[in-house]
Amino acid sequence: MAAKPIDATENITNPLAHQEGGQDIPISSTLICSCGKTSVGTSDYLTMSNFLSMGKETYRIPLRLFQENREKLVASIQSQVGERTLVVLVGGESATRFDSDNEPIFRQESYFWWLTGVKEPDCSLIIDRDGSITLLIPKLPADYATIMGHIKSPEEWKEMYQVDHVKYTEELEETLEDMVGSNGNTAKILLMEGPNSDSGNTYNLAPKFKSDKLISLQDKTTLFPILAECRVQKSPSELALLEHVAQISSFAHSYVMRNLKPGMMEYQAESLFLHYAYVVIDAMLGSQDCCGPNKPVFRCVSAQGNPIHGISSFVSYASDITCSFPANGKFSEKYRPIYSAVLKAQVTVYDMCKPGASWVECHKAAEKTILQALAEIGIVKVGADTSLDELVEKRLGAVFMPHGLGHFIGIDCHD
Fold first, then answer.
1. Contact between 326 and 262 (Cβ < 8 Å)
2. pTM for this one?
């Protein structure tokens, strides 16, 4: 029986069915989708009838997800800037490993991906005030096809990513000057530049214009905070995709737990995670860290077990799940209370989560639950005249949970 096609706005509820004893895990029909159209042509993922997909039996991502993102940005600019503007964004550049000709696996720059879904390097983007989009692509030499295969035409790019216009990157300034001249009243060309609040690094991929006219119109301060804010609140399509990615990561963790044995190495656990993410679910850019003695201590609940910090990424949207478990399948009496404390804190926060709930209060509740458990074990000593709430306010909980309750997630693990 053919699998039912799955839309990215649909919820997926059924987990994968596990066979007894681990080993092979069959794919549930609720997690695959059938797409009957021929791809336009790309080796990594396919464009089928306005969807991105890793193949005919994988989850489909509607191209409208990226269109909705562009519409959100245009609306935000119109409400906050008000002047006639053009947005110019540069995608990630192709690179080689140091002085060699080896090309590392390319991953698109996050803001560019959020607006386009374009996976190829060396592209640029122009968004007009009315939301029309011009994609600029690299002009590849004819002999590129000898090694790398078919060179897509501008028409194929246009169809593949559902954009309004396609030009070559070498035509960027000429195209902008034409747009400025035709619009007549363009006040600003908005370019991206600003600090990433998580990493502390600066986004500085803005193009360097040669034209005095374009230089006089460029604005490098307005766009970054507006676009960064747009990424904070996810659209329904993004939420559905993030749910799917979280399920991939959850199932991959379960697969590792079912197949890991005492004495296996960390890299073998990583291999199990990646095997599941790539082969069973076709996740892109899956990754996983096994804590053990070689990873940060705050990731590890017990040295007896095999704590893993798993990150799966599907079509560049990420999940981030950390859990601990005993390699032999059973917690010892020494480590069970620690695991139970974290589980109780998690359930406590789950019960508090609802629209309008305070993130800070949820965080404090988690810290209090963990401190209470540590006090019962005897690790934390609570004085007769001291309450757990006072210890929370003094941030004692941060000693045991320095990473906090959570963080934004989306295209980047720390979005």
1. no
2. 0.78
